[in-house]
Amino acid sequence: RLHLVTWNVGTASPPPDVTSLLQLDSLGPTMDMYVIGLQEVNSRITNFLSDLAFDDPWSVFFMTVLSPLGYIKLSSVRMQGLLLLIFVKHVHLPFIRDIHTHYTRTGLYGYWGNKGGVTARMCLYGHTVCFMNCHLPAHIENTEQRLDDFEKILEMQFEGENIPSTLDHVLFWFGDLNFRIADYGIHFVRESINNKRYNLLWEKDQLNMAKKKEAFLQEFIEGPLQFKPTYKFDLYSDVYDTSEKKRKPAWTDRILWRVKSLCQHASKEGELSEEEQTISVTLNNYISHMSYGISDHKPVTGTFGLELKPLLSDPLVTLNPEGEWSAEHDVLISYSAVPEFPSSAWDWIGLFKVTFRHVNDYVTYAWVEDDEVSSNKDSKQVYMSAAEIPDMGGEFLLCYYSNNLQSVVGISQPFQIQPNRTLIETDLTQEENNWIQKPDDLESHNEF
Predict the structure, then answer these.
(1) Per the count of CB atoms within 10 A, which of 220, 319, 324, 379 is most buried?
(2) pLDDT(432) > 70
(3) What is the 3-state secondary structure (H, E, C) of the chain?
(4) Domains 2-266+275-308 and 317-426 are alike in CATH topology
């Protein structure tokens, strides 16, 4: 279950609440993955330099919302105002590998990143999946420029790397694509919207028209546009542009997808390979969210079902805490790896709170080689010093991070760390001493 968001936030700060945007109040099953594509994130030079050193406010905001619910930030990529964030449930981490990110500038003839695309691709249970967040050129007359830029972005993603073409993935393409409604005047467009006769406008939507003519777009699929055009609104309202420019409404914010052409991948015997037979994408919901008014665009979400026959079904590493854990003694971690696992001296095992935000959000870690205490053909043991274990205890889990694969390849079940009883007893004794001293203090106060 994948929930995908695209939103041109118009340099605004995050809103107070995104419960409905992320469908956190839904009665259905929870999402497995959130993919959030933002455009026009504040990228003034002071903000951008600050964001390079620290997580930007939007990333921090979504991590704060999603990490208590058991999601971690799997990947993020930023190019000036374009930001792509991917969050995933803990349970899927060992089955997501080969994560790569890329960006392509198309503004100012490719020298400026105010327009272009940011992409993340990964191997999900053995299937290649790619997410592409784009901000294409504005204005009704620039259709050809939009198409040229998108074709360039498709060609340049992961160019020169030993990675399949973007079109060899299950590809999700979304963003502020800036396609407009051609030919019809503003009064006809607004009247059609007011009467909810959106179908009258579909045939003049520039993206719909382009999909009929351009070969490279014809395999992209989109759900029906059964919501009001999402651009351009007065701020904090659901009223279309009342400024002097009176921009014509348009479906600028879109989500499309493409499952690689099965006919191109048939084997010589005329049969499809195992991978092509075992993946499908279903759109469950494609809507806009009119209640958000921080920018002149309304956010759009798509909720998908990805049906995958797992080509990877076992984690590369299985790991567990040994015995009861507390900060009163050193502790042991046991782990085992599959024979083909490409281990490295730089691999490490991290101790994380169950609400950790991303892979660098560990409490402490142990190097798998330097901190090894025993080894046999079935499993190995690594120790962590008592000094590194949190005194207050709580619920934690362990993750094995592979340096060669640049990803988490094993995760333990959540487990309890017992509080440090020595520390608690010391605190209680101190409190008792403080209480015993109080009558004397009162007596001396009365005498004074």
Answers:
(1) 319
(2) no
(3) CEEEEEEECCCCCCCCCCCCCCCCCCCCCCCCEEEEEEECCCCCHHHHHHHHHCCCHHHHHHHHHHHHHCEEEEEEEEECCEEEEEEEEHHHHHHEEEEEEEEEEEEHHHCEEEEEEEEEEEEECCEEEEEEEEECCCCHHHHHHHHHHHHHHHHHCCCCCCCCCHHHCEEEEEEECCCCECCCCHHHHHHHHHCCCCHHHHCCEHHHHHHHHCHHHCCCECCCCCCCCCECECCCCCCECCCCCCCCCECCEEEEEECCCHHHHECCCCCECHHHHCEEEEEEEEEECCCCCCCCECCEEEEEEEEECCCCCCCCEEEEEECCEECCCCEEEEEEECCCCCCCCCCEEEEEECCCCECCCCCEEEECCCCEEEECCCCEEEEECHHHCCCCCEEEEEEEEECCCCEEEEECCCEEEECCHHHHHHHHHHHHHHHHHHHHHHHHHHHC
(4) no
Residue 417 or residue 160, greater confidence: 417
At 13-60, the pLDDT tens digits run: 999 999 999 999 888 889 999 999 999 998 665 555 554 545 789 999
- pLDDT surpasses 80 at 436: no
* Distant-in-sequence, close-in-space partners of 227: CB < 8 Å, separation ≥ 6: 198, 286, 287, 288, 300
- The yes/no answer on whether domain 317-426 falls in CATH 2.160.10.10 is no
Question: Which tens digit of pLDDT belongs to each residue from 258-308?
Answer: 997 544 444 434 444 544 557 899 999 999 999 999 999 999 999 999 998
What are 208-232's pLDDT values in tens digits? 999 999 998 989 999 999 999 999 9
Residue whose token pair is 């190097």: 367
For the chain, the residue count is: 448
Residue type, 144: E
Distance CA 390, CA 327 (A): 6
pLDDT tens track for 103-119 = 888 866 544 557 899 99
pLDDT of residue 29: 85
Phi-psi region of 114 (alpha: psi -120 to 50; beta: other; left: phi over 0): alpha
CATH no. for 2-266+275-308: 3.60.10.10
Per-residue pLDDT, averaged over 131-143, amounts to 95
Domain borders along the chain are 2-266+275-308, 317-426
Phi/psi class of residue 27: alpha, beta or left (left: φ > 0; alpha: ψ in -120 to 50)?
alpha
Bridging pattern class, strands 372-375 and 380-384: antiparallel
